[in-house]
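Morning!

This is the sequence you dropped in the shared folder:
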Amino acid sequence: MTEQQGDPRHLETLDRDLARYSNLELATSYVSRPMVGPGISLVFVVLAGIAAMLFFGQTSNSLIVVIAACLGAYMALNIGANDVANNMGPAVGANALTMGGAIAIAVVFESAGALIAGGDVVSTIAKGIIAPESMGTASVFIWAMMAALLSAALWVNLATWVGAPVSTTHSVVGGVMGAGIAAAGFAAVDWSTMGAIAASWVISPVLGGAIAAAFLWLIKSRIIYQDDKIAAARKWVPVLVGIMAGTFAAYLALKGLKKIIKIDMPTALLIGAAIGALVWVAMIPTIRKQSEGLENRNRSLKVLFGIPLVVSAALLSFAHGANDVANAVGPLAAIVQASQSGNFTDSVSIPFWVMVIGAMGISFGLFLFGPKLIRMVGGQITKLNPMRAYCVALSAAITVIVASWLGLPVSSTHIAVGGVFGVGFFREWDAERRIKKARLAMPDRPSYAPEERRRRKLVRRSHFMTIIAAWIITVPAAAMLSGIIFFLINTVMG
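The structure's back. Tokens below.
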């Protein structure tokens, strides 16, 4: 060993150099981490294009289908990043599920819903918004669908980046409408359908919020505010779980299993009532055993709602996969059919490989980008616990059934987030009511200053306004973007 190597000052310098190197490595990993998600996403989009080439074969239109498959994959990634958060957010916010557990459950059940029970037929252009014959030629129709798919994906991507949960179905609707207007004029739009969709912007969240608030009132009045909370829970929790089981059974019979068997509304409600009654009876001894030894306080009640909440999140994911994936890959399926046969006026059958792209894209999007919106829905709008999150999940299923019965097009995003708002605003109202009651009983009790009362609001107004604004502009923004993209494509190709 040389004298310089044995010098303690040299060893100190070496330690400092190693520390700097370690810090550099750490900094590099932090810099590169944000690029991992987009990198994996890009690989998936390219693989979707290659898969389309393999399935579609080498024909004159194969390049069009490859590009459309890439756009469909991009759209599916954005659905996973944004839409699925609505199903998993409440369960994560209530600490009934970890983020990893929520993502794992959602990936399995979203994919199962898409592949097992996904709608095998959709109207040529999402929900009959545009008259297909107004497009004139197959090529114009294909460019319109391309524009609709890209604009919807870009809009949902932007909303996810901003942190606003928006309806991917409404994004597709707006994209289709904008491209249709650009291609064939305003007369091509079915404005009665658009009017019904616009009405659903108000009906979906209000109905979801009202039902969630009603169930939270039931839980508070019948269980939480009772002297013996555990005895009350033994009576009412089996009833609530039975209602949930019956509701989801009817929901899945009506919406989730249409590919396997067609079930009408009365039959679905009968199935739901039968399963709900069986689950209610089965849960009575289960809840009695689960509640043994629990202390008579609110914290103990959370244990009883944990498993039902996890099951409801899984079933919501299955139903979402069965319904919303078809809306996202519908334009891609329409492009495939128009490219293969030149037919673009009949209903479109969705090929299995297209559904696989949709299901896998949702899974990757959720895994890579979903946590941001899951945290937003689950914890940043208002504080959720298992009871409140249960109310949100139950209201989502009930609202979809009611809307189906009334024939209203609704958004699962609007319903779920409306349920979160409903729970939060009900808590604010209930807290104010109890403060006034306490003040009447104790007039000398000091009250909060107006500034303090504003600060203690239980729903964050900034998130509320951001989300409402995003909902209002989704269809017009996607439509404008789609129209611009269609003009650009038409100019280049024409």
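Headline: Confidence is low (pLDDT under 50) at residues 1-5, 28-32.

More detail when I'm at my desk.
O.
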